[in-house]
Amino acid sequence: MVPAGGATISNAVEKAKELGDEIVHSRRARMFGKNTVASTIAFLLDLAILWSLVELVGLPRVPSAIIAFILPMVVFYVLERQWVFPDSNRGVASGFVYFMFNIGIGFVVMLGIFWALLTFTGIHYLVARVLASIVSGIVIFLLNGVFNFKQL
């Protein structure tokens, strides 16, 4: 039986496959993939610093999260600028200012979610940090891709 409009199920499946291939192989998908790698590198550095400050130095968790966020963001900017958004026309210095503004927004998002998870759920601080960073990372990617590097 042929549905209204003459389309068949196999045609619909083929169209869905083509759309999926287009999305996966698109420039934006490649940038998001590279961003995921770059942010993972920065995030692992962040977690290492956070763990060290809490477990080895004995600092409280939330201030440690603030301190641990700073150095990895410089590493992240270099990776974003050189690898994720290499075709940006924005200057390096002005790009860094925009980047840090966007990072500030992401930082507030991350810290708010981190605090809420610690306060209301009782989950381990490193798990809370991972969950908060997933949301924050997507926010930062979108802000930088649209407003800073202007490639989304």
Question: How would you describe the overall organization of this protein?
Answer:
By secondary structure, this protein is an all-alpha fold. It has one domain (27-148). Helix content is 82%, strand content 0%. It is built from five helices and no strands. It has helices spanning 9-24, 27-57, 61-84, 92-120, 125-148. Helix 2 (27-57) runs antiparallel to helix 5 (125-148), helix 3 packs antiparallel against helix 4 and helix 4 runs antiparallel to helix 5 (125-148). The longest helix is centred in the N-terminal third of the chain and has 31 residues, at 27-57. It is globular and about 60 Å long. The mean pLDDT is 88.
Short description:
With 152 residues, the chain is mainly α. The chain contains 5 helices and no strands.
Provide key terms for this protein.
152 residues, mainly alpha, 5 helices
How are the SSEs ordered, and which strands pair?
Elements: H1 9-24, H2 27-57, H3 61-84, H4 92-120, H5 125-148
Helix pairs in contact: 2-3, 2-5, 3-4, 4-5
